[in-house]
Specification:
The chain is an alpha+beta fold. The protein is built from nine helices and seven strands, in the order H-E-E-H-H-H-H-H-H-E-E-E-E-E-H-H. Helix 1 (about 5-40) packs across helix 6 and helix 5 packs across helix 7.
Amino acid sequence: MQSLTETSAKTTTEINEAARAAEREAAEAFANQLRDALGLTPDTPRFHCGHDQHRRVDKLIRRARERVLDQAPLEGDFTLAAGYTATCAWHRFIHLELATDAALEYVQTLSAWDFCQFLGDLVVARATTGKAQDAYFCALATRVTTAARAVVDAVAAVDVEPLAQQYTEILRLAFTPYLPDPVFDLRIAPYSVSITYRREAGATETTWEAVVSGNRVLRNGVVDMDAASITLSSTNPFDTETAPEWLTGLIEQYTPTSW
């Protein structure tokens, strides 16, 4: 016969498990609404069709909140607007790079699909104050680091052959000259760049690919709110010839000194 203490402990465990299951369902439901609204699939990369999908998600939530505040909401706006605090936390700690390196790298490399889940989890966490948000991203960095170490330990005994080494540097830009893409008749006002360096096994030269994100500049010179991206690569002779000095300077400055 179970004691009162054992029964109470079992009941508490069941309640906690039910609460966690409900939170997981709520986070998944919020993420799915974002995915449906933007037409995302599990294969949609972060930079897709000239748009930064993380920024698209952010703008979608902010516009839904604006319509709710103006008392002219569309269907689903109340659910999306509930993510406003979460997207503000993302903007502060990730977009403005106030989080630790581990959290920054993790969130910045999420696919569009997984980014929606990340925001759903952040909504459910109810981190509404700056202190709570800071604690959330610190805990995220700890989980990411712990998971990475576990993976390293798990594959330590596996027989592998290095094929290449790769390194990515993500930089926030300010007061940067407009960047044109004549092929697609596009011009953007850059706000960030992701530079990926790669060296094949046994090679002595390093290749690079730079994805510059920014706001689209209209033909009349007005900077639009729509985000776009331009990709340049050292494997494309045209890109190496036309890349602006500010970009080639950054590429040279952040090139890994050792591999």
